């Protein structure tokens, strides 16, 4: 895939405004979050456990229904959409989870092709058949993540790092403009983690995708991010270019946590 | 009496060991539990009127029966083939229709996917009722309702199996990995596509395995159902016993043995393949 060549800045792909999420009977997990991601931009979200990172991503992909605020993806407000319109809008954003979330009994190729289901409504795909026409493209996405040689393998036989790359290929098969990744390297060894981060950065820089990635490791964030967003108690504590970020604000993110543990 | 094994320990260590659950003798509670269990077993001997001496005097009677049952009357084999087929088909019918009914019922009865609470309670109620009433009792009811023959037996197995399968199917759905479901949902796939491409591949092997095991159990049940007039080889067995045709009885028992063993092997082989 030749890159769109779009650099950071210019038009925004994702703009989140005043996003609120209150779980039934609980406190506010998100308390007015604003952030944006442009094409070709890799934005990393840091925050301690329970700060609302997963809730943020799950609201944006509308696995959760936010209590308030706006989610603008390429100008369209996702927070108000339902049904077919929501499904169509979702195709623009691919989501990557901590454990890959592949269908374990299916082949790698079948898993990747299933990412394209949104573009292929109809009886055949509803009955569980896969659109054969998507195979060449799917092989291309597997090549892009370096796993074309594993196309025939059952997903259950992959290592954690391989599964995560297949999950990225599946997200690419939906031809998204934006990737959301929730701790995609949390269960990987350091080497595999670096590989995934390099891949996400390449997808941003070469293919012009916007990437919003939740991480647990500040040192990875500093090295790979264009911008780092610090989340605390469901609020944005800071939002700065990675190069300008000093250590102090990052330490402050985890401070409350450390104090709580010391007590 | 002192705690002998603890004598080498100081007071502090002894206290710690005791607090950590070390015991050098059974506690009073353990002793009482053991006594209660012993009493439980003894009362069963009284209630079932166990008479070991009858087993010994019964040996000659058994030997006599065995003599009259050998050799098996192979000339009756052709007559036994149709009832044998009936028995197998009762089990297949009961299993297949139970699976067809249990699958949608399990969706309603699984807490994580049920469309609404009233459906959940309704489905759980149907499952509890059909499960709690034994298949033999269902067979008696259906014999009364539709008359003698294999059909009431097949119905009885189907109804009882709906409950047995429905509960296990619902458990599979409740334990399902939601990861792939969420992943496909976020690609923009429709609900039906998510069901056929993420839910089904995840649960189908378990459902097939459970169904095959159920068939194996249903075959054994369908033999017994004949005793209450619900067709199959069990009915033949009952008739032969009542007519004191012990050589026919032994032939029928051989057929039963072959059927049960074959069903068990086939079911186990297929289960291994879908695992
Ligand atoms: N489904 C839910 N129901 C109720 N509370 C939830 C749910 N999911 C998350 N929360 C709560 O929302 C807060 C943020 O959680 P989460 O977004 O998972 O944090 P993070 O991903 O940053 O660790 C936590 O206090 C958590 O307990
Ligand atoms: Mg999380």
From TrEMBL, chain A:
Where does the ABC transporter domain start and stop, copy by copy? 14-258
Keyword Nucleotide-binding assigned: yes
Q: Which GO terms describe its cellular component?
A: membrane
Keyword set, alphabetical order: ATP-binding, Cell membrane, Membrane, Nucleotide-binding, Translocase, Transport
Q: This protein's superkingdom?
A: Bacteria
Q: Which GO terms describe its molecular function?
A: ABC-type phosphonate transporter activity; ATP binding; ATP hydrolysis activity
Which Pfam families does this one have?
A: ABC_tran
Protein name, per record = Phosphonate transport system ATP-binding protein
Q: Which organism is it from?
A: Tistlia consotensis USBA 355
TrEMBL record, chain B:
Molecular function via GO: ABC-type phosphonate transporter activity
What topology does the record note for this protein and the membrane? Multi-pass membrane protein
TM ranges are 28-48, 90-115, 136-159, 194-215, 222-238, 244-263
Keywords (alphabetical) are: Cell membrane, Membrane, Transmembrane, Transmembrane helix, Transport
Report the GO terms under cellular component.
Answer: plasma membrane
SUPFAM superfamilies hit by this protein: MetI-like
Question: In what residue span(s) does the ABC transmembrane type-1 domain sit?
Answer: 84-267
The highest taxon in the source lineage is: Bacteria
- Does the record bear Cell membrane in its keywords? yes
Cross-referenced Pfam families, in alphabetical order? BPD_transp_1
Localized where?
Cell membrane
Task: State the InterPro entries in the record.
Answer: MetI-like, MetI-like_sf, PhnE/PtxC
Which family is this protein grouped under? Answer: Belongs to the binding-protein-dependent transport system permease family.
Q: What is this protein called?
A: Phosphonate transport system permease protein
Organism annotation: Tistlia consotensis USBA 355
